[in-house]
Amino acid sequence: VDEEEEYECVSVLNSHTQDVKHVVWHPNQELLASASYDDTVKLYHEEEDDWVCCATLEGHESTVWSVAFDRSGERLASCSDDKTVRVWRRYKPGNEEGVACSGTDPTWKCVCNLSGYHTRTIYDVAWCHLTGALATACGDDAIRVFEESAASDPRQPTFGLTAHNSPGRAVTLHCSASVLRTSVEAEPSRKKRPRVSFSRHMSLMARAVFPVSFLE
Description:
Elements: E1 20-25, E2 31-36, E3 41-47, E4 50-57, E5 64-69, E6 75-80, E7 85-91, E8 107-114, E9 122-127, E10 134-138, E11 143-148, E12 159-164, E13 171-175, E14 179-185, E15 193-198, E16 206-210
Antiparallel strand pairs: 1-2, 2-3, 3-4, 5-6, 6-7, 7-8, 9-10, 10-11, 11-12, 13-16, 14-15
């Protein structure tokens, strides 16, 4: 935003080789993450008055549709056409775990791969900043909520499925995270893409009614 409170383009980022599906800001730092049709996640920061790619996260076998930071910004979740959700953790130089870093830049390492829960493309992922739960919106018309095991190792966290609606009909789910809204954004000439997001203000014990409704 300039002095006249008008927006201007300050940088064009073209690090991806295919179209970009989603971008999200870090919750408390000037760090940007993007998901792409080229099967990767990229991270960007400002350097010498320009924005540059500072990390490329590889591991998904198909299009990455969405990414989401947790409350601390130390972990990033990504979801893909390969029917998996990956959780990436940031390791800073000199970390106790001994994860190698390049210079002063941190390394993002995949510490968890949620597979076997989804039957079709996962189009969206949301991280609850109240409880740490993960919610996914899938092409099979289902929303799933995962919670991290209290006894799991932070270096290799484990998540369990705690809520799942039955496709094709409304189901009431009781979960320890509150879902504020679910929606679908339909794009011309593209398949329908469900979206999901968490409320920051609702009670930790809430009742959510599914499934999501499609906007034509």
